[in-house]
Amino acid sequence: MTFVIAQRNSLLSALWRLYEKEPDRLLFTFVDDHGEDAETLRAGELTEAVDEIARSLRSWGLAPGDRAVLVYPPSLDFLKAFMGCLAAGVLPVPVYPPNPFRLSRDLAGFNAIVESSGATAALTNGLFDRSRRASSVGRLLGRSEHNWPRIPWYRTDRRPGRRGGADCDPDTWYEPAGPGETAFLQYTSGSTGTPKGVMVTHGNLVHEIAANVVDLRLNDETRGVFWLPQYHDMGLINVFLSTAIGNSTTHILSPLTFLQRPWIWLDVMSRVGATITSAPNFAYDLAIRKTTPEMRAAWDLSCLEMAITAAEPIRTRTISAFLDAFAVTGVRPDVFYGAYGLAENTASVTNRGQGVLRLDKQALAEGDVVPVDPPVEGTSYDAGGHVDYYGCGFSSKPEDRIRIVDPDTGVPCPPARVGEIWVRSSTTAAGYWGRPEATREIFHATVTGDDDPTEYLRTGDLGFLHEGQLFMTGRIKDLIIVRGRNVYPSDIENSVRECHRDIRPGGIVAFALGPDETFPGDLTGDGDSTERLVVFAETARKRIDADLAAEICATVRKFVYADHQLACHTVVLGRPGLVRKTTSGKVRRRVCKAALLSGEVDRETGTLLVSVQGTESTGQFTEEHS
In terms of domains, do 377 and 404 share one? Predict the structure, then answer.
């Protein structure tokens, strides 16, 4: 049976009902680096682990309302600890485990989250001790050169053996005062700024997972295969927590496994007859590039009903290319669905988006939505005056309201006009932890000139509604304005992505420098009253000489100008790692810009090839910098 949570109930009550009725129900299978099933988790095992961890947390002195950071590599131990915290009334704070090979960068963010949340403990497991990407926690904490936060660490996988299911006692589990009480802190990805702790309530979880069942058509026959990170809202709520209460049977891969061996994702989907999967756009691109026709011929994806694309802009060209490349697997053309969400709205805003809308590019630069003839089947992004957008879908929550509003005035936009997406929903979170002013600004916006006192969440995203469906065009903070024209950096990045064979498709970012902003060695901004376009492009080559660098930079400029009639002022070439990203894979344009202005990119990545308009390319890649 599928357990849709009733509004009055909680996530833990749903787990307990499942435990009483189907303790042997298989929930999760964890897949190892070779694609083999390595570990399973059943409803009874999860419930007993939750009960034990809740008791352990109390014995360690953690009380209801305390915060604990969850520092786990991809594993089922993370889920047990998360729900154990809920059962003890402790607020879990999922974080990305610091990488010992880049501690100087990761520890700063980790410490900031610990300080912001006021966490009094860190929870982990033996996998973090033994991980190839992390040395022993004890050794790392003992190295004085690293500024680790001074909080105790506890391993939740060191628990006494059970004495039988009768020991589980839900009466000892924490009971929230009401649906508005905070359940956990979800820190934002930081793609456009400093990560902030979103206060997700118990009621938010109830409504989000109930909507998840409807949107994704979950049932007893649902078989999911996912590699989404466990510490971000999309993977945490719509995969881990939804599966935990019996809404599907799920195979889980580590994100690292996917990045190193993308074909395992497809192979497992074929092996188990997956009906649903979800991933950002780049994953489908990677699947095309990293699989062979022989691999695809051996796979059967005919059972797939939903392939959700979210977390970054959807490229219609990617969907077309994936369907062409994987046609031999039996994958159906109607399985792709767009979605849109953000941590501030718990996870999702809209889902089940389908359909391509082709717009006039010049009109869009002025903020107007002017549809043109639909694209010919099999084509997508068109540089010749048109741009395609894939639908992000609709909300299944009847009480939800989505408004398109002028971000400067707060006045509702007329139809067919791009504006900021404002949302009011049962899944809108309570605000930012410890940030009352930011909470008032972002979570309690009111529409100018509207008698309705409804308060809205300002998403910071630009978009429009067309025939009731939401389309997202970009982030306000990322928008490039050149001589009064609005240019979306994702469009520029699409132009550069495939313009030269030596550019990595997943390593491109575009942003603008203001009139007074210069980077070390660049004086061209003095006296220039307009924004100047910058493109970062990664290349996998270990050695690039000046001639090849000039060729790549010239090609980038040619394609950008041809597609957008914009001069590309600066092109920066670098090795993988040049383009800063969040742990979920989103490009961090503002961080890239700050790194260029400060000279940090040069110090961290080695010699860079910087081509400024009107100057010679400088530097070259050498083996020692690879």
Answer: no
370 with 485, same domain?
no
Nearest to 346 by CA among 461, 421, 237, 445: 237
Of residues 41, 3, 16, the one with CA closest to residue 173: 16
How far apart are alpha carbons 509 and 593 in whole angstroms?
10
Q: Are residues 547 and 444 in the same domain?
A: no
Would you put residue 3 in left (φ > 0), alpha (ψ -120 to 50) or beta?
A: beta
pLDDT at 164: 45
Q: What is the number of other CB atoms lying within 10 angstroms of the CB of residue 16? A: 21
What is the β-pairing status of strands 182-187 and 401-405? Answer: unpaired
The pair of structure tokens assigned to 115 is 């300080």
The backbone torsions φ and ψ at residue 245, rounded to the nearest 5 degrees and listed phi first, read -105, 20
Distance of CA 460 to the CA centre of its chain: 16
Please work out, in degrees rounded to the nearest 5, the angle formed at the alpha carbon of residue 34 by the alpha carbons of 32 and 35. Answer: 70
Give the long-range contacts of residues 589-596, CB within 8 A, separation 24 or more.
Answer: 589/191, 589/192, 589/478, 589/489, 589/509, 589/510, 589/511, 590/192, 590/193, 590/477, 590/478, 590/511, 591/190, 592/509, 592/511, 592/536, 593/511, 593/513, 593/534, 596/519, 596/534, 596/536, 596/572
**Could you state, in chain order, the average pLDDT of each consecutive group of 10 residues for the chain (626 residues)?**
46 94 97 96 96 96 97 95 97 89 77 94 80 48 65 86 61 92 88 77 95 92 95 92 96 94 97 96 92 98 95 86 97 95 95 94 92 60 72 88 96 96 97 97 93 92 96 90 80 89 90 82 55 88 82 90 85 88 78 86 58 55 37
CATH number, domain containing residue 459: 2.30.38.10
Query: Between 43-59 and 11-21, two packed helices, what is the crossing angle to 10 degrees?
Result: 130
The amino acid occupying position 219 is: N
pLDDT at position 617: 45
Are 260 and 296 in the same domain? yes
The tokens 């004086």 sit on which residue?
Answer: 523
Give yes or no: residues 309 and 380 share one domain.
no
593 and 551 belong to one structural domain: yes
In angstroms, the CA 29 to CA 263 distance is: 18
| DSSP letters spanning 372-431 | -SPPPTT----TTTEEEEE---B---TT-EEEEE-TTT-PBPPTTB-EEEEEE-TT----
Token pair recorded at residue 534: 């910058």
- At 303 the pLDDT is 98
Whole-number CA gyration radius for the chain: 24
The CA–CA distances, whole Å, from 578 to 72, 99, 444, 505, 551 equal 26, 17, 37, 13, 19
In a domain, 69, yes or no: yes
pLDDT value for 189: 67
pLDDT at 1: 38
Q: What is the pTM of this model?
A: 0.84
For 598, the 3-state DSSP assignment is helix
Q: Which residues form the domain of 370?
A: 358-391
Q: Residues 510, 515, 516, 522: what is their CA dihedral angle, to the nearest 10 degrees?
A: 60
Nearest to 383 by CA among 470, 462, 499: 499
Q: How many CB atoms lie within 10 A of CB 460?
A: 17
Domain total of the chain: 4
- Do 296 and 420 share a domain, yes or no? no
